[in-house]
Specification:
There is one protein chain. This protein is of the alpha/beta class and 366 residues long. The protein folds into two domains: 3-31 and 162-220, no CATH class; 51-160 and 221-252 and 279-357, Rossmann fold. Helices cover 40% and strands 23% of the residues. The protein is built from 15 helices and 16 strands. Strands 2, 3, 4, 5, 10, 14, 15 and 16 form an eight-stranded mixed beta sheet that branches. Strands 1, 6, 7, 8 and 9 form a five-stranded antiparallel beta sheet that branches. A hairpin with a 2-residue loop joins strand 11 (260-263) and strand 12 (266-268). The longest helix has 17 residues, at 56-72. The structure holds S-adenosyl-L-homocysteine. S-adenosyl-L-homocysteine is lined by residues 36, 42, 50, 52-53, 85-87, 91, 115-118, 121, 154-156, 159-160.
Length: 366
């Protein structure tokens, strides 16, 4: 049993079950034992691999997307260059390297900010971005300056705590994680439960077209993701700029439980080994778009990652880089490109959405 499992068990014994969102927040973000707090979860030796770790071209193209948008805005100096949930810092390092060689005025005008809560990952980001002056913040609210913003986020929203509701005979009840004395083994004695009483759904789910779903159906909302998008959109509306968010998820709100956990590149139970497994959920892009519009932003997309990266020229750029490197690296560049755009890998499941200030030009790739 993980340290965190023991701690959560003790807390549940005295205070009762947690909501799914509270459980996920502890599993990922507990200051001492949370999954992201101590370790580097990415890459071959970790639990999962992400687009910037698969190919350098991903970060390079997103950097060029930012450069182009900065020029469309009239090259403001200074501007905020922000990444939310930057992992190892690979995406931002690749983006800045690609862009600096084309236009040194871009990095000179950029005030780089990273939104990151994990001390372990902040350390890796510092190493990856050693050549640049970087400011770390815990949330967008921590960025005090008022200037146009270009923001990138890859697999950030999927890591934020998710609330789930299940339809019972008498209405919707929140899904909880509690203790089941009969159970043990892989789930450390945790089980899913329902709140004792039905309660009104949060506002974000009230217009949900699947609200009439049958008994037993599960619906989801991610309040922190929606609050982040709301704050971001209000800033884009006020100060100008654009944001590009990439994640796996669905373009229309739908019924279904999308919580998933992975450990050592293998799926496992969400209730297993809290703090030692990554837990994520699919992003509801329809809900993201609705909040963004309500908060003053224009929404572009979502499009599939495959279509977006193709339009940005991923195949030509990968092929050009491949010409100049040894055989083994060439094969990695080619397979990385395919993995990012192919329908049966990340090309269709992953979606890309861009938000801009309402009076701003449209971004590339949409
Ligand atoms: N974007 C990176 C990493 C994705 S993993 C990549 O594509 O490789 C999710 C990232 O979000 C990690 O850096 C994690 O520490 C960060 N994160 C998770 N919850 C967060 C929160 N509430 N606030 C800020 N960062 C968070």
């Amino acid at each position: 049993m993980t340290e965190l499992a023991a701690l959560l068990r003790a807390r549940m014994e005295s205070q009762g079950p947690l909501t799914v969102a509270q459980y996920m927040a502890e599993a990922l973000g507990h200051p001492q034992w949370g999954y992201y707090m101590q370790r580097d979860p990415l890459g071959r030796d970790g639990d999962f691999i992400t687009a910037p770790e698969i190919s350098q071209v991903f970060g390079e193209l997103l950097g060029l997307w930012c450069l182009e948008y900065w020029r469309r805005m009239g090259s403001p100096d200074p501007f905020l260059l922000v990444e939310a949930g930057p992992g190892r810092g690979t995406l931002m390092a690749d983006a800045l390297r690609a862009v600096s060689s084309l236009d040194p005025a871009f990095p000179a005008a950029a005030r780089v900010h990273l939104v990151e809560t994990s001390p372990a990952l902040r350390g890796l980001q510092e190493k990856a971005l050693g050549d640049y002056q970087v400011t770390w913040v815990e949330s967008l609210e921590g960025i005090g300056d008022e200037a146009p913003m270009l923001l990138l986020a890859n697999e950030f929203l999927d890591a934020l705590p998710l609330r789930q509701f299940q339809r019972a005979e008498d209405g919707w009840r929140e899904r909880l994680v509690g203790l089941d004395s009969e159970k043990g083994g892989e789930t450390d004695g945790f089980c899913f439960l329902l709140a004792e009483e039905a309660a009104p759904l949060p506002d974000a789910l009230n217009s949900f077209e699947m609200k009439q779903a049958p008994t037993g159906a599960i619906i989801e909302t991610c309040p922190e993701a929606l609050a982040f998008v709301g704050e971001l959109s209000a800033r884009l509306g006020r100060d100008g700029g654009a944001a590009l968010m990439v994640d796996y998820g669905h373009t229309r709100s739908a019924v279904g439980d999308t919580l998933q956990a992975v450990r050592g590149h293998r799926p496992c139970s969400v209730l297993e080994a809290p703090g030692a497994a990554d837990i994520t959920a699919h992003v509801d892009f329809a809900a993201v778009a609705a909040v963004a519009r309500d908060s003053g932003a224009h929404v572009h997309g979502p499009r599939t990652q495959g279509a977006f990266l193709r339009d940005l020229g991923i195949e030509a750029r990968s092929a050009r880089l491949a010409e100049a490197v040894p055989e083994e690296q060439r094969r990695l560049l080619e397979s990385g490109c395919q993995r990012l755009i192919s329908q049966d890998e990340m090309g269709a499941l992953f979606k890309v959405v861009a938000l801009t200030g309402a009076s701003q030009p449209a971004p590339a790739g949409f």
